[in-house]
């Protein structure tokens, strides 16, 4: 399916087949006389007397070839509510082979050049589908003709939203790919192509990682015939040499659990265990496409956690990039091993303003927060507040969870500096975050986002259909726009 959007300064014709008009929350229609005939307006007013005005969108079928859609706008509507309204509009028009809609922005009773951008942004986010491997293609085309003079967005605004959509869709595409296609070798190859967007890409393969001493990351990928990689993506958009904002993603392209084998049921979903990395990649692509005026670096660890004669065993001890040793008591607690090396490396090499890592790290966070909030763990109150506020504005919500030195004893090992799981039980997400915090060596502001419940939706959400959500791209973009540009 394709959605084609055209902008025009023309006023909507009264003969347009499918006309979209905006009214206030009480569905007052007095100002619509310019856009529809008096007989149609009279007909609509009669029907409104029997309609549920709590609905945001009401469709009037005037004939087999003509319909008028009224969309109500509440006073002081928030941007996220506008986007949700656009998504609801998509649900209304998502049927049939091809369709064309004339959206009259002059029917808005206020001037807001960003309104239609947010509205169409929500529509496009909701329209995402991943049907790459369907042999029978269902081609549908929706044409949106945006008419009017008062509320046309600027070219730069249109490009900004397009970049954000492309970044989000790229992240969703990566998460949606099956494990036999998007293994670490293929993933690294795709990231290398992002040079075309203006990103500086550096790929560290097994040989380079071994030389660097990234044995925690390498241990996870030992059982796979595929390579293991750390990939850095740099965007230098600031005019000065200011410290970059750093974003790190867990990229386990498939997670069997290793010798601590996962149950067979739902193991197929473990293709999305790289969703944290996908969010970082989508964000960096977005920043490059919209020419963001910041310096930023994205770092992803790409591995495949498999079972084989050379796979890592429970009880193995590895020495991390930081120099700290880890006893691997459970090979299914692998994401924190990948992140441990990535975090220390990023802090040492790039000396960033802050580090935010994203990972589908624990099932425990789903038990705690379900699929409504991601877990937020941080050593910095200011950064935490900024992330939470950004999440509320784009409806990618986070709930701050505790970190405390008393949890450290649960991760201490008798045989090494630490162990990778808490065998006592309880606080699974917090002890995982407490583990990661040990790899922040120079007190850099840091936040860990456990997105296990948010990266993939079987039922769909306000701005996404079922499947990969791209959670994190819009959140982190909002964080940057609000606080760092």
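^ structure tokens above, recovered residues below v
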């Amino acid at each position: 399916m394709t959605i084609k959007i055209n902008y025009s300064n023309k006023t909507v014709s009264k003969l347009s087949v499918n006309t979209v008009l905006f009214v206030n929350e009480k569905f007052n229609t007095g100002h619509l006389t310019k856009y529809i005939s008096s007989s149609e307006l009279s007909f609509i007013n009669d029907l409104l007397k029997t309609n549920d005005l709590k609905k945001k969108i009401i469709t009037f079928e005037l004939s087999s070839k003509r319909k008028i859609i009224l969309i109500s706008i509440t006073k002081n509507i928030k941007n996220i509510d506008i986007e949700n309204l656009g998504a609801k509009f998509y649900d209304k028009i998502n049927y049939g082979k091809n369709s064309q809609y004339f959206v009259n922005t002059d029917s808005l009773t206020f001037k807001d050049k960003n309104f239609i951008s947010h509205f169409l942004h929500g529509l496009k986010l909701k329209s995402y589908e991943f049907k790459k491997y369907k042999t029978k293609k269902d081609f549908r085309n929706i044409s949106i003709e945006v008419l009017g003079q008062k509320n046309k967005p600027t070219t730069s605004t249109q490009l900004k939203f397009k970049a954000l959509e492309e970044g989000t869709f790229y992240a969703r595409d990566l998460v949606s790919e099956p494990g036999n296609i998007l293994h670490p070798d293929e993933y690294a190859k795709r990231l290398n192509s992002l040079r075309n967007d203006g990103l500086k890409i550096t790929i560290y393969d097994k040989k380079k990682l071994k030389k660097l001493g990234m044995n925690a990351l390498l241990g996870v990928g030992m059982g796979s015939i595929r390579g293991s990689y750390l990939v850095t993506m740099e965007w230098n958009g600031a005019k000065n040499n200011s410290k970059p904002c750093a974003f790190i993603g867990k990229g386990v392209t498939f997670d069997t659990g290793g010798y601590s084998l996962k149950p067979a049921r739902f193991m197929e979903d473990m293709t999305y265990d790289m969703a944290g990395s996908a969010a970082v990649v989508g964000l960096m692509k977005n920043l490059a496409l919209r020419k963001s005026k910041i310096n930023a670096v994205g770092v992803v660890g790409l591995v495949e956690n498999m079972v084989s004669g050379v796979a890592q065993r429970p009880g193995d001890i590895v020495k991390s990039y930081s120099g700290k040793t880890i006893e691997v008591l459970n090979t299914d607690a692998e994401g924190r091993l990948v992140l441990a090396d990535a975090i220390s490396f990023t802090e040492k090499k790039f000396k960033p303003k802050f580090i935010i890592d994203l990972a589908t790290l624990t099932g425990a966070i789903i038990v705690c927060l379900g699929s409504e909030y991601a877990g937020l763990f941080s050593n910095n109150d200011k950064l935490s507040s900024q992330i939470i506020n950004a999440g509320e504005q784009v409806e990618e919500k986070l709930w701050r969870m505790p970190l405390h030195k008393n949890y450290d004893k649960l991760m201490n090992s008798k045989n090494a500096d630490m162990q990778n799981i808490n065998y006592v039980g309880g606080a699974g997400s917090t002890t995982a975050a407490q583990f990661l915090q040990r790899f922040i060596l120079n007190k850099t502001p840091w936040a860990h986002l456990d997105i296990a419940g948010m990266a993939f939706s079987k039922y769909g959400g306000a701005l996404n259909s079922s499947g990969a959500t791209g959670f994190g791209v819009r959140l982190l973009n909002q964080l940057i726009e609000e606080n760092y540009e």
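The mean pLDDT is 94.
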